[in-house]
Structure formats: C-alpha cells, structure tokens
Amino acid sequence: MVSSDQRRRQLAREKFERQRQRREETRKKARRRNAIIAAALAVVVVAGAAAYASVGLFDGDGDKKTDGTSSADSAAGSPSPDASTGGEPAMTVDKSAKYTMTLKTDHGDVAVAMDPAKTPHTVNSFKHLADKKFFDGTKCHRLTTQGIFVLQCGDPQGTGSGGPGYTVPDENLGALGKAGTDGRVTFKAGTVAMANTGQPNSGGSQFFLVYQDTRLAPTYTPFGTMDAAGLAAVREVAKGGVEGGAGDGAPKKAVTIEKATVTTS
C-alpha cells in the first residue's frame, strides 16, 4: 500500500517531469527563431547605396530563473506566470498615474518615463518584474552601431534568448506615426521599446534603448522615454563600440543593470 507521503513524492516527481518537458519544448521553439534582435543589422552596399538586411528584434524564452538558478533548481522568488491571466501578470498598475523605471547600471542611472494609459500591459509587466528583482544583476547583451542604433537589455541569461516565461500584447504601435515607403517609422533617440520574436504580441522582458534616431518597422511597442542623463550614459557605451569591431554584438563597455525599480508619481 502506498503511503500518503510516498504519494506526495510521486506527484511531485510527475509535476517536475511535466515542467521539464514544457521547458524543453520552449527551448526548442526558441532555437528555431534564428536571429535574436531585429531590423537592419548588416550593411550591404549595392550600387553605391547602403541597404540594410532585416532580421528582426527578437526576445526569446529562456529557462534561467530570477534568482540565478537553472530550470532544474528551485524557482522560489521567480516571477511565475499568473494562471488567471494566461501567464501574463495580473493588472495592478494605476492607468491614470505616471511610472518611472530606474535602471541603476555600472555606467550611470537610466530613468525611463512610462505611461500606463498608453501601454498598460507593458508597464504592468515591467513593474511586476522589477518588484521581483528580475533585472537585477543582468547584462545588456547587445549593441548595434550600424543601420540601427540601440542597446538591448532585459535578458536574465545575457545571451538574447531569455525571457520571463510569458508574453505581453503589442501596444501603442501607432504612436510613432505612419510608416514611410520603406515600411518603417523613426524611433527617435531616447525611445525605449520592446523587443519581440518577430511575431505579433510576443514581447517578454527584453527591451531596447535607442541612442540615435533609428528607422524600424512599427512592430515594437514604444513604452518609455529615457531622461537626458540616461541617454548620455547609453551614448557613452555606444562610443566604445562592439566587441571585435563589428556593428552588432556585445558592447565593449560591458553594461550590467545592478538594480531596476519602478515607482509611481
């Protein structure tokens, strides 16, 4: 006869195996999404004109927890998906208030003004993740200096393939105006926007900081604006260039988000 204690252990093992299988399937899907970040990364010179090869601004799903453990370790303290909302955290922000996300980095603080009236799901997710210390100790893993001009952050793994385990819907996509004949709009310097997988409504935790006006497809949620000091800090990182002298890759001046907070006023 199986004791109640043995039965509990058996159920726990079965639950862990189901979770392991789901994580493995997520990793397989992520590996099938080739490039990690989007929009015009390689410069191709044709007939004396510069054309940009578009590959996408991606945010994959990874399995690293917010406390730095692997998926096989305890998930205590991690920002678990909310079953009542299909994974996205339950809405708790005040849509009539103003929110500021402050990224304390080893190159200076970056304050991002956010408006939940325009991007409620995005702001709510960032507050949820910041409150869970999801971003603390993470690296900004990608800098682009040719074609597009952004610093990308928000991956707990620091590889470009990590995420929070849930997605948020696209928001505010019309804020930057009508697309031009190239199918793009201008993300002005100081804009902070969501990365995604190249598919609609697939944003997770990764975001990019625009340090110079950049033309991109209007498919990335613009949810915030950097303050002057933050923009200056990002530009200093960009001046250092990319490791290996390429136009896309890890920044030579490695950037760590030491602490992220979201406050309201």
TrEMBL record:
Highest taxon of source: Bacteria
Keywords, sorted A to Z: Isomerase
- Per the record, which residues fall in region Disordered? 1-32, 65-91
Q: Where does this protein have compositionally biased stretches of type Low complexity?
A: 68-87
For this protein, the record's PROSITE patterns field holds: CSA_PPIASE_2
An example Gene Ontology molecular-function term: isomerase activity
Domain PPIase cyclophilin-type as annotated: residue spans: 108-262
Isomerase listed as a keyword: yes
Q: Which Pfam families match?
A: Pro_isomerase
Q: Which InterPro entries match?
A: Cyclophilin-like_dom_sf (IPR029000), Cyclophilin-type_PPIase_dom (IPR002130), Cyclophilin_A-like (IPR044666)
Composition bias of kind Basic and acidic residues appears in 1-27
User: What's this chain's function?
Assistant: PPIases accelerate the folding of proteins. It catalyzes the cis-trans isomerization of proline imidic peptide bonds in oligopeptides.
Under what name is this protein listed? Peptidylprolyl isomerase
